C-alpha cells in the first residue's frame, strides 16, 4: 500500500497539515499484469482525435468509474504495466509482493 495525500486531517506526528490535502490508500497486491495500448494515439490529427485517444488510453485506468483518473489509479496502472513487462520477460508475477504489503 502506498499512501498518497491530497485533505489530510492529521499528520502521522499529530500536527495539522498545511494546505489542502486528502489521504487515500493505493493497493497493489491484487493488481493483474496489463499492457498499455498506444495505438489510440497513432491517428490523432485534430481536437476530436485527442479526445478519442484520451478516452481510449486513460479510460481503462478509471477503476471507480468517476470519469477521473486519480494518483492511485495512475500508480496502479503503472505497476500493472511493470508486471506485464516482467511476465513477458519470463517472470512469475505471483512471486512478487508489493512493497509495504503483506
Provide structural commentary.
This protein is of the alpha+beta class and 102 residues long. It has one domain (2-95). The protein is built from two helices and two strands; from the N terminus they run ββαα. The chain has helices at 47-58, 71-88, and strands at 2-5, 23-26. It starts with a strand and ends in a 14-residue tail after the last helix.
Keywords:
single chain; 102 residues; alpha+beta; flat
In total, how many domains does the architecture comprise? 1
Class from helix and strand fractions:
alpha+beta
Largest sheet: 2 strands, antiparallel
Shape: flat
Number of E-state strands: 2
Order of neighbouring strands in the sheet with most strands? 1-2
**What portion of residues belong to β-strands?**
5-15%
* Distance N to C terminus: 9 Å
Oligomer: single chain
Helix content: 25-40%
